[in-house]
What we know:
The protein is mostly helical. The chain has 2 domains: 38-224, no CATH class; 228-254 and 287-651, Cytochrome c oxidase-like, subunit I domain (Cytochrome C Oxidase, Chain A), CATH 1.20.210.10. Helix content is 66%, strand content 2%. The chain has helices at residues 3-32, 51-63, 83-103, 113-128, 143-159, 167-172, 183-201, 227-254, 276-280, 282-308, 323-354, 361-387, 396-399, 411-437, 443-459, 472-505, 511-529, 544-554, 564-575, 585-608, 612-618, 622-651, 659-695, 697-700, 703-706, 709-716, 718-738, and strands at residues 39-42, 47-50, 71-72, 75-76, 132-133, 138-141. The strands form 2 sheets. It has a 4-stranded mixed beta sheet with strand order 2-1-6-5. A hairpin with a 4-residue loop joins strand 5 and strand 6. Helix 11 (323-354) packs antiparallel against helix 12 and helix 22 packs antiparallel against helix 23. The termini are far apart. 51% of the residues are buried. Residues 323-760 form the Cytochrome oxidase subunit I profile domain. InterPro entries: Cyt_c_oxase-like_su1_dom, Cyt_c_oxase-like_su1_sf, Cyt_C_Oxase_1, NorB_cytochrome_c-like. It comes from Novilysobacter ciconiae. One of its GO terms (molecular function) is heme binding. This is Nitric-oxide reductase large subunit.
Amino acid sequence: MQITRRLWLGLGALLIVSFGIMLWIGKDLYQTAPPMPEQVVTESGEVLYTRADIEAGRRVWQEMGGQQSGSIWGHGALVAPDWSAEWLHKEVVAMLDIRSRIEFGMPYEQLNESEQAKLHAEIKPEIRANTYDPQTGSIVVSDERAQAISQVAAHYMSVFSNDPATHELREAYAIRENPVPDENSRRLMTGFFFWASWATVTNRPDDVKSYTNNFPHEPLVGNVPTSSSFMWSMFSILFMIAGIGLLSWHYAAYHGKEKPLAPPSQDPARAIVVTPSMRATAKYFWLVMALFLVQILMGATTAHYQVEGQEAYGFALSEWLPYAVTRSWHTQLAILWIATAWLATGLYLGPAISGHEPKYQKFGVNFLFISLIIIVVGAFAGQWMAVMGKLGKIPNFWFGHQGWEYVDIGRFWQIYLFIGLMLWLTLVGRALWPAMRAKNQTSSIAGLLFLSTVAIGILYAAGLMWKENTHISIVTYWKFWIVHLWVEGFFEVFAVAVISFIFVKLGLVRGRSATINVLFATIVFMAGGVLGMFHHLYFAGVTTGVIALGASISALEVVPLALIGLEAHETWKSSRATPWMQQYKWPIMFFLAVSFWNLIGAGLLGFLINTPLALFYMQGTNLTAAHGHTALFGVYGMLGIGLMLYCLRGLKPDLVWREGLLRSGFWALNIGLLLMMTLTLLPMGVLQLEANLENGYWYARSAEFMTRPIIDVLVWLRVPGDTVFAAGAFMIALFVLSLWLGPRRAREPIAGVLETESSL
């Protein structure tokens, strides 16, 4: 059996087993998720909340921004508190104070240590006891606890109103005045906050850990890491070391055994005929740069909210463009502009690989472009109207803001985007089909490229798997089918296949070698990338078995990154193989940047927060933000720009590139991202980690902590990095614009080498 066939069979078996396990665990999660009660009642019979109240309260929370304004169970924005953690702490403190006044006749904080310890020992069993009755669907709380719940609810009803007493908190949380004008809606939202907090501290039946595996850290009531978190964190490190060792052995045994391939004397890519549909992709790259620049503007605005809270240098910005909106747009635009670059690359490469221009291909490319613009404008307008309370009777879930980070556009726009992805899949597939049928050296690469487009398109359907009132654990499960499997799964396959095709097409790598390497790399990526999704679910209602599986497999995500330096060296050697490769210097420089940030952002910072024990203390802090920024932009953003530049070289082969703009833009983007990480995100995250270890998660996310002078200094230290980064993006955009406005033609090529400028 040929090695290529064996690798295909191995990949197929791996994917079948992996997705089978994911579906099996998803079915299990439906049964083990924290129960939604029919009612919350006191021992004396008073009904505090009904199921309808809790579900309606969640809809209120989602409409005002949901996970874009604070977080639940650690998932969401970082300026406002984690509402589940803060409610838990406030409820415990209120219970301690009530009990202290009953037993000692004085406030809790005036007691000595032994008296406080006595109350801790009394309160802990009560608050951790599971009083949910599956027969009646009721949660029963003591009258004393009901009094504490009432006090905490009153606090949040004040926070989400325009009460002057809590104005400073709204400012610290970057929440506009009176975000939930209706008093009953605020009361309903407190029901959802209570239930989310109840799930974090209530022991599972016949167990000593909560439904969220004791997350968040709250030492007052024993919410500390479980023994399984320690154990599987240790084993995950061993799995990672073993995986790196095996991959290193394979690399040493099999890599570099072939003789180097003599590069062609002239650029083979110049023989590619640019078809009408390929030429039509140019407008996608204009859209990429426009979305990128707006995303940076929204990011700067979102960051500034940490400084002033509700204003921008005296202007009441939150009344017109609230934090929940700017952060929603910032995260959505990051995904959209990167995805648009990849969509355009697929549309460009399809005919380039096969040499076939299907009928009406250009029309399809143009129709998809118009659809993307409609989706962006419509979805963003709906999100703004939802957060501002202007949707009226229009269903928020369908046309407004769903409240789920990364996938928060309305369901109508989700369906429209899914249809657009299916159209993209069709356009790329019909263009690639002749290449996949050719059975030559690159047919497997074309097949993998098509497989990745199929997966990227179809996986977005996971975002359609929940309804308006679906359990939050189930929503989290399906959400990360998209977020994780796109970013750490099939985007990787797409990237490897595209870059390999580029080097094969340029005559720098043998087709057979590239095919084997791509298939092997895909197997390695998928081995950790698919089931590695479960590290996002450690505290979303799963059982210990899922934590064990997630920890073990997530560790393997780091394995292929261990040899990233060798990959970068191979890429660098390819760029210097022949003089005409200077035409592709900047696409390859961005590919090299991808290797660097893959090691730093996805590798080091990713594994820093990946183990169950680490994530217990780091989820929802700026350490996760450091990983998110460096992995998403550093890897996929840089790759998107690199692919864009490769396509632009093909679309404009005879133009002189303004090297000065590219050089300055490249280094500004990388230096800016590095400054952003080292001056703000990492040190702030470390301080939050220390605060969590000492006082609990609630404190690391509290207004008291986030308004400390050192935090203000670190926030202001984002300005240098953000400024340099924005300048880099502007220079890249200016370069793209220069290819159409004021282009400079090259003289006749000499020995296949185009004349280029060394500066502006």
